[in-house]
């Protein structure tokens, strides 16, 4: 590949992977089972990103392994009805064209593991959506570094990634012990915990003790929040995640988290009061989360617009099950392909957004110039649905 035998595109991208490997001391390249590419929204990559992708596609770039895409900047089918700007949509569709030409699956979701890109335990992958990286490493036990958009794309075009960091056994050991002594009731509580811990451990590996139960949606909320407030790519939860039992916790730096700490996280993240819109589904909602919301909204009427963001595949299933209709009857929308942070909501007249996600609450002020209301779904619906 480096000798140019597979063409200019592969050579250029392989060179990038070699350079990365040299910087991080990788001993070799390893094949990857799949790639998740981030940097898809026109809002994030702009014209330079679009030109870069079109250039690659025009030179015949083709992915060598199953490759899925992160959320785009808009619902690819309903963007007009939802009020997305026309000029934005035009550019976004060009970006999608370029990705499609490269053979990438048009999943447009940050939960690829819910729509067919499900790695196995210990499988090497190269993913670049931070919440998905965290989920794959921690909940599934697959192995990926926190790739950037270009390095993930390079891995997809070459089928390999340099062997360093979280691909190695010895780099998956925890270095913080987080003792949780507060009850975690819903996704928002897990998001608040993740926000607090991510800020302290930064790119470290926390080992949680005291979390009695957590479903996959709560684990994705926890990982997403830590990946955003810090740069956590892997965490362990005693008795719950697959690699937790491999490690001892003696000598680890201890972080105590009680009600006071999570309360403080809620206080910091709540910067607004009266939301213009409620946006759920960060990370993208599972079918179970959509079903739960639909049941909560049954027979109710929302006072504010509400979106629940998810993948197209999950929306199709939700529609088939009648959940989309229930949500729409209450005045909400199931929005596919995009999310609160990568869509241009600040251009659509929204100034204060309510969320139940620690990651979204953390990112919305910077990325979308929003004031934030951060609460559990039940608390959000209490004031905003009758
Ligand atoms: Fe996914 Fe967007 Fe949140 S990419 S993790 S829904 S910020």
Put the structure in a nutshell.
This protein has 386 residues and is α/β, with parallel strands linked by helices. It has helices spanning 8-24, 42-58, 79-82, 86-101, 130-140, 149-158, 187-201, 216-229, 259-269, 287-297, 312-320, 323-329, 358-368, 377-384; strands at 29-31, 35-37, 67-69, 126-127, 160-162, 176-180, 206-209, 236-237, 253-257, 277-280, 306-310, 332-336, 352-355, 371-374. It contains 14 helices and 14 strands.
- Distance, first to last CA: 61 Å
Order of helices and strands: HEEHEHHEHHEEHEHEEHEHEHHEEHEH
Which class do the helix and strand fractions yield? alpha/beta
Tally of individual helices = 14
Rg to the nearest angstrom?
20 Å
**Percent of sequence in beta strands:** 5-15%
How is the biggest beta sheet arranged? 5 strands, parallel
Number of strands: 14
Associated small molecules = FE3-S4 cluster
Averaged pLDDT, please? 97
Shape: globular
In the predicted model, the low-confidence regions spanning at least 5 consecutive residues are: none
The percentage helix is 40-55%
Placed side by side, the strands forming the largest sheet appear as 12-11-10-13-14
What this model shows, in words?
The structure is a single chain. The model has no long low-confidence stretch (mean pLDDT 97). A 5-stranded parallel β-sheet has the order 12-11-10-13-14. It has helices at residues 8-24, 42-58, 79-82, 86-101, 130-140, 149-158, 187-201, 216-229, 259-269, 287-297, 312-320, 323-329, 358-368, 377-384; strands spanning 29-31, 35-37, 67-69, 126-127, 160-162, 176-180, 206-209, 236-237, 253-257, 277-280, 306-310, 332-336, 352-355, 371-374. The chain is globular. 42% of the residues lie in helices and 13% in strands. The longest helix is centred in the N-terminal third of the chain and has 17 residues, at 8-24. The protein is an alpha/beta fold. The chain starts with 7 loop residues before the first helix and ends with a helix. The chain has 14 helices and 14 strands. α5 crosses α8 (216-229) and α7 packs across α9 (259-269). The site of FE3-S4 cluster has 15 residues, from α13.
């Amino acid at each position: 590949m480096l000798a140019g035998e597979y063409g200019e595109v592969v050579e250029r991208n392989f060179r990038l992977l070699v350079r990365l490997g040299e910087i991080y001391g990788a001993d070799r390249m390893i094949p990857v089972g799949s790639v998740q590419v981030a940097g898809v929204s026109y809002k994030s990559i702009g014209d330079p990103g679009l030109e870069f992708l079109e250039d690659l596609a025009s030179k015949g770039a083709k992915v060598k392994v199953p490759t899925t895409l992160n959320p785009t900047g808009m619902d690819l089918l309903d963007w007009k009805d939802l009020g997305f700007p026309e000029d934005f949509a035009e550019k976004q569709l060009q970006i999608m064209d370029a990705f499609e030409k490269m053979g990438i699956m048009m999943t447009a979701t940050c939960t690829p593991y819910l729509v067919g890109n499900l790695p196995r335990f210990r499988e090497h992958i190269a993913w670049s959506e931070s919440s998905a990286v965290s989920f794959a490493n921690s909940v599934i036990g697959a192995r990926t570094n926190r790739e950037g958009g270009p390095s993930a794309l390079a891995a997809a075009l070459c089928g390999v990634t340099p062997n360093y960091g979280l691909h190695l056994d010895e780099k998956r050991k925890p270095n913080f012990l987080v003792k949780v002594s507060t009850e975690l009731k819903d996704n928002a509580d897990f998001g608040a915990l993740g926000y607090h811990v991510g800020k302290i451990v930064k790119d470290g590996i926390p080992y949680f003790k005291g979390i009695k139960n957590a479903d996959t949606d709560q684990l994705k909320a926890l990982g997403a929040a830590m990946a955003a407030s810090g740069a956590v790519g892997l965490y362990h939860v005693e008795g719950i995640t697959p690699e937790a039992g491999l490690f001892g916790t003696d000598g680890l730096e201890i972080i105590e988290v009680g009600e006071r700490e999570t309360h403080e996280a809620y206080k910091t993240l709540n910067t607004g009061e009266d939301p213009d819109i409620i946006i759920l589904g960060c990370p993208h909602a599972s079918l179970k989360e959509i079903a739960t919301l639909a049941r909560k909204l049954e027979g109710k009427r929302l006072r504010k617009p509400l979106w629940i963001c998810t993948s197209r595949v999950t929306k199709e299933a939700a529609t088939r099950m009648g959940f989309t209709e229930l949500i729409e009857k209450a005045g909400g929308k199931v929005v596919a392909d995009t999310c609160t942070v990568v869509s241009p909501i600040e251009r659509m007249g929204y100034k204060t957004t309510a969320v139940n996600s620690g990651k979204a609450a953390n990112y919305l002020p910077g990325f979308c110039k929003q004031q934030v209301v951060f609460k559990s779904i039940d608390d959000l619906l209490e004031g905003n649905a009758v």
